[in-house]
Design brief:
The protein has an eight-stranded parallel barrel, surrounded by six helices. Helices cover 38% and strands 15% of the residues. It has a domain of 156 residues: TIM Barrel (Alpha-Beta Barrel). By secondary structure, it is an alpha/beta fold. The longest helix is centred in the C-terminal third of the chain and has 18 residues. Helix 6 crosses helix 7. It binds 1,3-dihydroxyacetonephosphate (13P). 1,3-dihydroxyacetonephosphate binds next to strand 8.
């Protein structure tokens, strides 16, 4: 039986002082005991302050990105071993914002997105994380035009096959897949829960095709995209949804706590 998992993705929000205040409040609220796994992914600079506060709890620290090389002349980058050293247990890879499929600034980066994430770099990052014992949270999802063009399943299957290329199921047992429809991120438009569950089921079937049913059954598959206290219960009650990857609502301790409480 897979344990539910709720992950907060703070994106580019929170100074260290704000991060500490948010985590302190949240930890007090969940101190009665949480019945699911929880992780918080702050920006790199707040990882150490967040990890210090979470160390004495069951809540894990995550990161939002990683570079795949071990070390060297890669200005601005952070490696998986640096994340492991900082106490990171989970790391997001292939988020639609880093893939450049969402949230583009008004800069001429149309062809690559400004972080230039591709299926190949997602795969390299996933491998680097697994080598360091960090659980990847591999994000997949379709844009609105892909959904309207009935390409949802094809796009996601291609992202999974490329992102997991050369990785075997046993290695990925602690890994996580997050289904985040690009059109539902930060828009307030949640994917209907039966449809979100259908896509998560399709993702598990694809994992079974890539590996086998047993390996596929171990991986947690989260839904992300405008998850809130008000819709979390219905989403998490769906048979194929193992929890949530939460953006905006994870920045407010009370709201994040409501979401965690819905994941029993
Ligand atoms: P929102 O919850 O703000 O829609 O963001 C979802 C997301 O991108 C989490 O990674």
């Amino acid at each position: 039986m897979r344990r539910k998992l709720v992950v907060g993705n703070w994106k580019m929000n929170m100074t260290r002082a704000e991060a500490a205040a948010c985590v302190e409040t949240f930890v007090e609220q969940v101190s009665a005991g949480q019945e699911c796994d929880v992780a918080i992914c702050p920006p790199f600079l707040a990882i150490s302050v967040v990890h210090d506060l979470l160390k004495k709890t069951q809540i894990k620290t995550g990161a939002q990105d990683v570079f795949w090389a071990e070390k060297g002349a890669f200005t601005g980058s952070v490696s998986a071993s640096m994340l492991a050293d900082a106490g990171v247990s989970f790391c997001i890879v292939g988020h639609s914002e880093t893939r450049g499929r969402f949230g583009k600034l008004e800069v001429p980066a149309e062809t690559t997105g400004y972080f230039a994430e591709t299926d190949l770099t997602v795969n390299l990052k996933t491998k680097a994380l697994l080598e360091r014992g960090i659980s990847p949270i591999l994000c997949v999802g379709e844009t609105l035009s892909e959904r309207e063009g009935l390409q949802t399943d094809n796009v996601i299957q291609a992202q999974l096959k490329a992102g997991l290329d050369g990785i075997d199921g046993a290695e990925f047992a602690e890994g996580v897949i997050a289904y985040e429809p690009v059109w539902a991120i930060g828009t307030g438009m949640t994917c209907d829960s039966p449809e979100a569950s259908r896509v998560c089921g399709m993702i598990r079937a694809t994992l079974a095709e890539i590996w086998d049913e047993d390996a596929a059954s171990r991986v947690r598959i989260l839904y992300g995209g405008s998850v809130k206290g008000a819709n979390a219960h219905e989403l998490f009650a769906q048979p194929d949804i193992d929890g949530g990857l939460v953006g905006g609502a994870s920045l407010v301790a009370d709201e994040f706590h409501r979401i965690v409480a819905a994941a029993k």
